[in-house]
Amino acid sequence: MRLPSSFARAVASDLPGVILDPPSYGHGGEGGHAGAFRFERDIVELLAAARAVASPDAFWLLSTHTIGWDARRIATALAAATSQPIQAVRAVPLDLTAASGGRLGARRGRPIRPLDTEPR
């Protein structure tokens, strides 16, 4: 993954929160393949770029549909990217409940407050 060199300058620094929902695969420019994003290959670099513009106490939300990335694997990547213990990351179900009571099991998100290490 190649992020533009202006990425950090284009985004305000010390953002209070980071919300990421990257695709499993995304076409890049130049015919679609030159800058293609692949979650498996590029998530670490994406998280590092986001960390560069996030405030130290920013909240994080990371979600994905990517096969093979269960809650534990997402939590591990996010904890490593933010230099936090895995215990600081908690799962929050993103399920939808209809007025009838029916429930649609959606993907799982992974929020983190780096300075908040108390379990909730």
Using brief descriptors, characterize the structure shown:
120 residues, 4-stranded mixed β-sheet, Rossmann fold
Write the H/E string, N to C.
Answer: HEEEHEHEEEE
Percent helix, as a range, is 25-40%
- Average pLDDT confidence is 76
- Secondary structure tally, helices: 3
Strand order of the largest sheet: 1-4-8-5
Low-confidence stretches: none
Q: What is the radius of gyration computed over CA atoms, rounded to a whole number of angstroms?
A: 16 Å
Through-space gap between termini: 35 Å
Global outline:
globular
CATH topology: Rossmann fold
Largest sheet: 4 strands, mixed
CATH class: Alpha Beta
CATH architecture annotation: 3-Layer(aba) Sandwich
Structural class comes to alpha+beta
How many domain units? Answer: 1
CATH superfamily: Vaccinia Virus protein VP39
Percentage of β-strand residues: 25-35%
Task: Give me the count of strands.
Answer: 8
Structure report:
By secondary structure, this protein is an alpha+beta fold. Helix content is 25%, strand content 26%. It has helices at 7-10, 39-53, 71-81; strands spanning 15-20, 25-26, 37-38, 54-63, 92-93, 96-97, 103-104, 108-112. It has one domain: Rossmann fold. A hairpin with a 5-residue loop joins strand 6 and strand 7. The longest helix has 15 residues, at 39-53.
Task: Give the helices and strands, then pairings.
Blueprint: H1 7-10, E1 15-20, E2 25-26, E3 37-38, H2 39-53, E4 54-63, H3 71-81, E5 92-93, E6 96-97, E7 103-104, E8 108-112
Parallel strand pairs: 1-4
Antiparallel strand pairs: 2-3, 4-8, 5-8, 6-7
